[in-house]
Write a structure and sequence with these properties.
Blueprint: H1 4-22, H2 31-59, H3 63-79
Helix pairs in contact: 1-2
Length: 80
Amino acid sequence: MTTSTITVRITQPIAIALTTWLLPATYAGQDRLVIVEGAVAGLWAAFVGHLLFVEWFVLRPRRRRRAAAARTTAAASAGN
């Protein structure tokens, strides 16, 4: 989660731009509010993005271990 600080620097400008582009009438004339809302959205996007990555990393299938175990089992049964 330490790298979220770096990711926020990428997601915040994108979130601010999207907020300005998608909701122009909602935040008309309220530039400071656009920046605050975009910053919060960028923080959440970075946090959730990192959580999704870690969840994928932990739960991904372990193909190498299965293949190595299958080779070991096959070699053991061939030797008998």
